[in-house]
Amino acid sequence: MTDLLRDTLNERADGIEPPPLDLDGIVAAGNRQISRRRALTVLGGAVATAAVAVGGATLIRPRTPRPQPARPAPYVERRAVTFALGNKIHYGSDVIPVPSKHINAFVQTDAGFVFLDEGNNIHIADRAGVRATGKGTWRLTADHRGSLVAWVEDFNDHCESVVYDVAANRELVRTPAGNAIPANASLAYGPRIVAIDGNTAYFGTLKGLYRWDISTNNGELLAKVPPDAVRTVSAGQLVYQQPLVQPAAGHTLRVGPTLTTGDRTTFAGEQAFLSPGAKYLVTQPNDASAGPQPVWSDLQLYGVTTPTGRPLPRTSYWKFRFGQWLDDTTFTAAGARHTSRNEADLLVVDARTSTYGVVAPEFSTYTFSKTAPRTTPFAMPTGAPIYDLG
Q1: Confidence of residue 39 (pLDDT cuts 50, 70, 90)
Q2: Which of 36, 56, 209, 303 lies at a C-alpha separation of 20 to 30 Å from 12?
Q3: Using CB atoms within 10 A of its CB, is residue 184 exposed (0-12), middle (13-18) or buried (19+)?
């Protein structure tokens, strides 16, 4: 093949846009996957029974055993049907009950789920069962891939940023850097874990934004900004508020590789959910309550390089809540219906077309508990509860 022909083919391949997402196909494939899973379960049980019956037979081993392939992490797949309801985590057709009254918040890692119970105590649910960590926090943060989860722990005179490896069942990072609490101080905004991006963690501390190398357990102070000035980081791109030093959460956001360079486009919103490859951005307000709100105060979908956003169509729903990115162009959301009971459907959304399909109809209601803190019956895998702040 000549260099000219090879270059021509490469240019054409790079210019091809991926086909639109087949939402109906996702739902159908999910049903087929459930059927296959059930069939394999029955078959596996029959094989296990047969193995017990011939337990006295001689086992013949090959002379040259072949090396077994590495076992994939059990929760690598990001499934459209992923939510918590009451004390159960729903993961596709799998239902994982936990010994708690209620799951306030949770995240998924490749090695298992990490959740907060009704008292905000941290637990891990994996193939080995459910175990308590003996720690507590207000919110959890995880990457789009990998087995790491992070949180902030509060003490009398300081806070500590923690990164935990679910697969290895141990802490990789624990540091008080930037989080000394001044005497008699009243904190309007506490420290938080901004993001885990590969092998790098970003800590929003009382002193400013730290970038932390998890493998070496060393960090550096990037900027003296409020703890929540940077909302999230993905593929090396930071989503940060405008203006950066505003003490309260700003209503416009920017995306760039640093806090001073990058795309000058501003995006409306307070919360931010950046796709794994930093191609699309979903924003929404902090306040989940009903009532008069700004025009932009629901899920807004943006292409990071395009200046205009578009809200999800409201043909059947009056409110959306973000779930998780399944890949770089697809995410899930909960949609509250226009009914007296406010039933909520679980949706999968194609970011390229702003179209969506229902994968779990009426999986919960979009209502809030009567006592504080007022939260919904369900939780999405964002690591934070859905509060009514009204």
Answers
A1: very low
A2: 303
A3: exposed
User: Of the candidates 171, 115, 157, which has an alpha carbon nearest to the alpha carbon of residue 385?
Assistant: 115
**Token reading at 214:** 């998890």
Q: What is the pTM of this model?
A: 0.81
φ/ψ of residue 354, rounded to 5? 60, 30
Q: How confident is the model at residue 175 (pLDDT cuts 50, 70, 90)?
A: very high
The CB density around residue 38, as the number of other CB atoms within 10 Å, is 11
Q: Closest Cα to residue 104, out of 128, 69, 138?
A: 138
Mean pLDDT, range 131-158, rounded to an integer: 96
Distances from the Cα of 26 to the Cαs of 31, 92, 145, 262, 328, in angstroms?
9, 12, 21, 35, 16
Cis peptide bond prior to 361, omega within 30° of 0: no
CA dist., res. 191 & res. 159, Å (int): 8
Tokens describing residue 13: 């391949």
pLDDT for residue 327 is more than 60: yes
Per the CB < 8 A criterion, the answer to whether 205 and 227 are in contact is yes
Query: pLDDT tens-digit profile of 83-117?
Result: 999 999 999 999 999 999 999 999 999 999 999 99
Evaluate whether 228 touches 189 at the Cβ level (below 8 Å): yes
| Angstrom distance (rounded) from CA 101 to CA 107 | 18
CA distance 144 to 383: 12
**Token pair of 232 as six digits:** 């999230």
Q: Which tokens hold the place of 356?
A: 């969506």
Residue with tokens 């697969």: 167
Residue 29's CB: how many other CB atoms inside 10 A?
12
Q: What are phi and psi of 336, to 5 degrees?
A: -90, 130
Of 320, 293, 311, 331, residue with least CA distance to 376: 320
For residue 127, the model assigns a pLDDT of 92
Interacting residues of 185 by C-beta distance below 8 A, sequence separation 6+:
none
pLDDT grade for 187, boundaries at 50, 70 and 90: low
Number of CB atoms found within 10 A of residue 200's CB: 16
**In angstroms, how far apart are the furthest CA atoms of the chain?**
75
Helices (H), the chain: 3-15, 23-53
Identify the DSSP state of 93.
Answer: T
Q: Which of 40-44, 229-233, 300-304 has the lowest mean pLDDT?
A: 40-44
